[in-house]
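Possible regression after last week's pipeline update?

I re-ran a chain I had predicted before the update to compare outputs. Posting the input and the new output here so someone can diff against the archived version. Not blocking, just want to make sure nothing changed silently.
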Amino acid sequence: MPVTYLIKFDVVPERRDRFLVLLNDLLDAMRSEPMFHLAILHQDREAANRFMLYETWESHEDVLEVQLKRPYREAGHRALPELLSKPREVSIWEPLRADMQRA
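New output (post-update):
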């Protein structure tokens, strides 16, 4: 069953550019994973250094056992303590319904 993660980041202002470089590299690498569905990066309209990542994968077990151990994640995970002003917030959601505009 697909699973969605909402991850909120409060970034140290002086480290914003480095955070975005590492996160964009991570998102580019994730995109080619077979269990990956979707990722959307959001920025808070009222706080330029607050971000939310909406990320959907096919399986929570795969995320825990495979995806979190991918080598391309190492640099970003190691850098988080110096990039963030507080620990990231992670919540896990199961989709019940999805609606999209038809093209």
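Follow-up from reviewer: compared with the archived run. The longest strand covers residues 47-57. Marking as no regression found.
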